[in-house]
């Protein structure tokens, strides 16, 4: 029996595991943290329809009890030796694991907003990230760092994306719709608050996303300003001042706000960033793993038996992640059955 | 041994830490070829002299003050009467003179000069044919040849580098003598110091540390105010042409209005132009609207980093030219408890302000 | 027809043409946009359109003369453009092609030439106390007036060397150095530019008088 190892217990790794187990292939799932679920554990409700993330995770609760699953939590893979078959994976605490086939589902990490210095994250307390906002939404309690209900909140799109200054020139795809999701959630919790979204382009790529945008405008009175944030500063009373241009009017705009939510972009995980230095797989120009091609081999690597699943190859929504994981599972099964390489 | 300027990380009010490390740049330690500023010499000649005096007497550094240097033509360039090629050749001539004097560490007094020099070096790097052209033009017009400097620093970088040594030798601290509390200082860093090439400025373009670290090291409290990064308003042609001078006033005013709620005791600058504008526009605002931005005196005193360093080191306020400021610095001298010949200072101020009554 | 290829070969334009995302970050912090009805983003847009008529119109208008050359826009642009640097090039070409006389602000280049240009040529300084009169610079205030009246004394108090030989602040620039910079001004196009400014403005003034 061939040995299959899945690195990363996020939604992608879980979906691949579930399918392989269902088809009768024993797998080893390695997760660096102490939990399964990955990033969506931190998010409350998911776009496009506000499904609680727990509901998605529920599909996998029976997995750890499966006798065919070897689960290694708190184990971070640092290196893979491709020089001989079976391949060997090395964890940070020195464990070596051999594998005939590996599925890399190491996901993404969020952009470190401190790098975008002029936005004031880590300097002014009222500036938070979208991930921190998810936490407040989950706790159903949105307050400024000074314990007050914010009267005005501005969501800032494209933080750490589409920006040569910070080295990330790509679009993270999901933050526009995530901003709308969060803006609506915020308005539900704070009906009195004024909410603004500052964007460059609104990328409503999903079939139902545009409706959500319309809803945000019509039902929730969320204001959209076409203009990127230029800088944040703080007044003596701790309110924030933001500068942008309303590019539809063509005039600079200065606005006071109690809270600023930075829609941080999705970056390649450290695992893939570091991979470029000590391993043989190809990394694309944005730091994510580079699939064999962008059409019919988005889950395949250049190496035999090595596959990718989910956001390890680039930003994706939960639905896309699951679909990608399913496609990868199918490729893996075909490979294990000797039908494909 | 050369050393890289260290970047201390203690910054209570600005908790930004690690990324400032990205902006570490090399600052030469000694053997400076000093490049004067037209604006500084015109308005605050004592400040440049104070810088050289500190280099010599307090830091025991070697420098050279070459009379053959002229304007960098940066003001002409940014007000669009100096073509790019002329600018390149002028800069090349300065480098040639530096080579001739046997120096390779250029230390620049003016932020405009600092900006254009870095910009020119960058253009030569990106477009090598422009460097060739500059060599050819310089040869053709003056018979000179030149090599690029090994290091370029702004004079404020040097004071920043030796801020601890200056603190050690200081007679005074940025502390209110009466209350024992740190003085509140706002900084204004000239736009061309780091906005053109952030990696050439200590701390980068957004949170330049060059002045704030001096303030902290010398005992003061740095006050971040909303329009800290806003341009002082020089605007080159906007100021030079009388009709558009309101541009300059407007932007200085934006800054004063923004800092006033924080009650700063002092504005510290590193650019000759900014220093003059922030000094003079307070006077104009007071004359035209009656508004004064300080709680005492006739405005918030505006000092250059050389003047401040010299003051704390015990140099005489008259000798460093503080009487040449329009906005009176006396309230600051009193807060600091500076011992000096008050009569001489008062006499000079009286003479100059008497004139105000006649005007 | 304006010489598009030559204009686009200017290193200042070449280096700052990374396409524009139209985000407005530059306009948001631009002091000129705060003061005038002006947008660096618009300048970037015209330059990227590569349309000769639009560019000529821009270079013939007041628009390019609003910028204050602070370069704040360069630090922030997510596409690493520098509208301020592009403006420098456009202003040069506007003068070179004689388009600057079509706008009131463009014609003011004569004033700059007669002040800053003259100072550089005659004194080797771009500014000099003797050229900063109270009539032209009332904002300088009474202390400045007093300094002007007492230049020698004031400079002596601060270890200056005004208008004298040798090193030091406001020293007299040695004759050989002046010769060198004049030769550079002549040999690299500055004097031609100045003559062009002078001639064009005088000619239009005459035309208007007829
Ligand atoms: C603020 C925000 C809100 C979002 N909201 C939504 C939403 O509402 N709807 C939606 O569809 N999508 C949303 N997304 C996108 C969603 O988070 C992703 O689609 C999804 O999490 C991708 O799952 P993944 O398994 O590919 O990656 P991850 O969730 O990143 O999982 C990767 C796992 O791999 C583990 N790992 C990494 N490296 C190693 C290693 N070396 N060794 C072992 N384990 C490792 C990690 O610990 C992690 O558990 C949002 C994203 C953000 C940033
Ligand atoms: S999805 Fe929207 S917010 Fe995110 S990077 Fe793309 S355009 Fe910017
Ligand atoms: S350089 Fe010009 S365009 Fe750029 S911010 Fe300054 S004034 Fe505006
Ligand atoms: S900041 Fe750059 S990309 Fe954005 S509008 Fe200005 S020039 Fe274009």
Kindly name the structural category of chain C.
mainly alpha
Mean pLDDT of chain B: 92
Total strands of chain B: the figure is 8
* Multimerization status: heterotrimer
- Which radius of gyration of chain C do the C-alpha atoms yield? 20 Å
Principal-axis shape of chain C: globular
Main-sheet strand order of chain B equals 2-1-3-4
Described by the principal axes of the CA atoms, the overall outline of chain B is: globular
Strand content of chain C: under 5%
- The residue ranges of chain B in which pLDDT falls below 50 over 5 or more consecutive positions are 1-18
Topology order of chain B in helix (H) and strand (E) letters: EHHEHHEHHEHHEHHEHHEHEHHH
Structural class, judged by helices and strands of chain B? alpha/beta
Count structural domains of chain B. Answer: 2
Number of helical elements of chain B: 16
- Point out poorly predicted stretches of chain C: none
Small-molecule binders: flavin-adenine dinucleotide, iron/sulfur cluster
- Identify the CATH architecture of the largest domain in chain B: 3-Layer(aba) Sandwich
Compute the separation of the termini of chain B in Å: 57 Å
How much helicity do the residues of chain B have? 40-55%
Question: Roughly what is the average pLDDT of chain C, rounded to an integer?
Answer: 95
Tell me about the largest β-sheet of chain B. Answer: 4 strands, parallel
Describe it.
The complex is a heterotrimer of chains A (341), B (359) and C (210). Chain A is an alpha/beta fold. Chain A has helices at residues 11-22, 53-58, 130-138, 175-189, 209-218, 270-278, 318-336, and strands at residues 4-7, 27-30, 45-46, 51-52, 69-72, 77-81, 87-91, 96-99, 101-104, 108-110, 127-129, 152-159, 194-199, 223-226, 229-234, 240-246, 251-257, 259-264, 266-268, 306-308. In chain A, helix 1 (11-22) links the parallel strand 1 (4-7) and strand 2. Chain B is built from 16 helices and eight strands. Chain B has helices at residues 38-43, 45-58, 74-78, 84-100, 111-126, 128-142, 155-161, 163-169, 191-194, 210-217, 237-240, 245-259, 272-289, 305-312, 330-336, 342-358, and strands spanning 32-35, 63-65, 105-108, 151-154, 184-188, 221-222, 266-269, 302-304. The termini of chain B are far apart. The model of chain B is unreliable at 1-18 (pLDDT under 50). The radius of gyration of chain C is 20 Å and the shape is globular. Chains in contact: A-B, A-C, B-C. Chain A binds chain B through residues 114-115, 117-118, 122-123, 231, 233-236, 241, and chain B through 14-19, 204, 206-207, 224-229, 261-262. The complex binds flavin-adenine dinucleotide (FAD) and iron/sulfur cluster (3 copies). Flavin-adenine dinucleotide binds next to helix 1, strand 10, helix 3, helix 4 and helix 7 of chain A.
């Amino acid at each position: 029996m061939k040995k299959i190892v899945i690195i990363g217990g996020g939604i992608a790794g879980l979906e691949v595991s579930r399918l392989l187990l269902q088809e009768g292939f024993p797998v080893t799932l390695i997760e660096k943290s102490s939990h399964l679920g990955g990033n969506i554990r931190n998010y409350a409700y998911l776009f496009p329809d506000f499904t609680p993330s727990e509901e998605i995770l529920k599909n996998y609760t029976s997995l750890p009890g499966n006798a065919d699953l070897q689960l290694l939590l708190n184990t971070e893979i640092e290196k893979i030796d491709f020089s001989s078959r079976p391949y060997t994976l090395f964890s940070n605490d020195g464990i070596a694991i051999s594998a005939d086939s590996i599925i890399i589902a190491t996901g993404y990490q969020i952009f470190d907003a401190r790098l975008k210095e002029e936005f004031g994250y880590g300097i002014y307390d009222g500036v938070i990230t979208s991930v921190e906002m998810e936490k407040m939404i989950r706790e159903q309690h949105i307050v400024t760092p000074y314990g007050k209900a914010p009267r005005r909140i501005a969501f800032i799109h494209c933080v750490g994306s589409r920006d040569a200054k910070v080295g990330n020139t790509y679009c993270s795809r999901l933050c526009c719709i995530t901003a709308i999701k969060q803006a609506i959630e915020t308005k539900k919790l704070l009906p009195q608050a004024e909410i603004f979204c500052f964007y460059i382009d609104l990328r409503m790529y999903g079939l139902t996303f545009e409706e959500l945008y319309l809803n945000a405008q019509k039902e929730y009175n969320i204001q959209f300003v076409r203009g990127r944030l230029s800088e944040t500063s703080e007044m003596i009373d701790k309110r924030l001042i933001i500068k942008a241009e309303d590019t539809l009017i063509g005039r600079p705009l200065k606005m006071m706000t109690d809270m600023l939510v930075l829609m941080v972009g999705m970056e390649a995980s450290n695992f893939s960033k570091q991979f470029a230095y000590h391993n043989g797989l190809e990394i694309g120009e944005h730091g994510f793993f580079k699939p064999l091609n962008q059409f019919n081999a988005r889950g395949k690597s250049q190496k035999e038996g090595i596959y990718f699943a989910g956001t390890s190859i680039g930003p994706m929504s939960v639905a896309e992640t699951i679909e990608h994981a399913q496609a990868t599972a199918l490729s893996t099964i075909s490979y294990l059955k000797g039908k494909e390489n | 041994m050369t050393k890289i300027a260290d970047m201390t990380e203690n910054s209570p009010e600005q908790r930004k830490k690690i990324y400032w490390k990205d902006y570490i740049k090399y600052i030469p330690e000694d053997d400076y070829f000093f490049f004067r500023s037209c604006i500084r010499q015109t308005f605050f000649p004592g400040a440049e002299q104070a810088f050289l005096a500190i280099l010599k007497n307090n830091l025991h550094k070697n420098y050279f003050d070459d009379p053959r240097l002229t304007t960098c033509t940066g003001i002409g360039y940014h007000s669009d009467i100096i073509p790019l090629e002329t600018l390149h050749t002028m800069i090349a001539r300065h480098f040639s003179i530096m080579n001739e004097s046997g120096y390779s560490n250029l230390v620049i007094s003016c932020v405009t000069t600092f900006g254009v020099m870095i910009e020119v070096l960058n253009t030569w790097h990106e477009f090598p044919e422009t460097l060739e052209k500059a060599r050819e033009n310089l040869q053709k017009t003056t018979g000179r040849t030149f090599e690029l400097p090994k290091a370029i620093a702004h004079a404020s970088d040097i004071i920043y580098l030796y801020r601890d040594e200056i603190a050690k030798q200081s007679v005074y601290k940025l502390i209110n003598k009466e209350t024992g509390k740190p003085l509140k200082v706002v900084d204004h860093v000239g736009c061309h110091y780091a906005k053109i090439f952030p990696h050439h400025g200590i701390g980068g373009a957004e949170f330049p540390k060059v002045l704030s670290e001096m303030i902290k090291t010398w005992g003061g409290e740095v006050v971040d105010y909303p329009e800290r990064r806003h341009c002082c308003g020089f605007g080159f042609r906007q100021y030079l042409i009388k009709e558009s001078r309101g541009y300059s006033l407007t932007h200085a005013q934006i800054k004063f209005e923004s800092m006033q709620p924080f009650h700063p005791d002092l504005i510290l600058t590193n650019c000759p132009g900014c220093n003059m504008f922030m000094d003079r526009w307070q006077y104009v605002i007071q004359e035209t609207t009656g508004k004064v931005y300080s709680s005492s005196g006739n405005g918030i005193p505006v000092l250059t980093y050389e003047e401040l360093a010299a003051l704390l080191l015990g140099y005489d306020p008259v000798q460093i030219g503080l009487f040449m400021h329009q906005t009176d610095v006396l309230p600051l001298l009193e807060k600091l408890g500076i011992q000096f010949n008050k009569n001489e200072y008062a006499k000079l101020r009286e003479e100059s302000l008497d004139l105000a009554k006649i005007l | 027809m304006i010489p598009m290829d030559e204009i686009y070969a200017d290193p200042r334009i070449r280096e700052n043409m990374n396409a524009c995302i139209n985000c407005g970050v530059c306009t948001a912090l631009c002091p000129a946009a705060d003061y005038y009805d002006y947008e660096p983003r618009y300048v970037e847009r015209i330059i990227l359109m590569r349309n000769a008529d639009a560019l000529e119109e821009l270079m013939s208008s007041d628009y390019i003369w609003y910028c204050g050359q602070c370069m704040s826009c360069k630090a922030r642009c997510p596409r690493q453009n520098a509208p301020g640097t592009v403006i420098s090039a456009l202003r040069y070409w506007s003068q070179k092609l004689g388009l600057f006389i079509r706008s009131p602000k463009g014609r003011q280049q004569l004033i700059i030439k007669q002040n800053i240009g003259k100072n550089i040529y005659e004194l080797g300084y771009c500014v000099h106390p003797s050229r900063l009169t109270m009539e032209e610079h009332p904002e300088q205030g009474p202390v400045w007036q007093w300094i002007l009246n007492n230049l020698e004394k004031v400079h002596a108090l601060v270890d200056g060397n005004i208008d004298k030989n040798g090193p030091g602040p406001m020293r007299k620039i040695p004759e050989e150095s002046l010769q060198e910079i004049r030769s550079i001004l002549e040999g690299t196009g500055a004097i031609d530019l100045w003559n062009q400014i002078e001639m064009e403005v005088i000619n239009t003034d005459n035309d208007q008088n007829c």
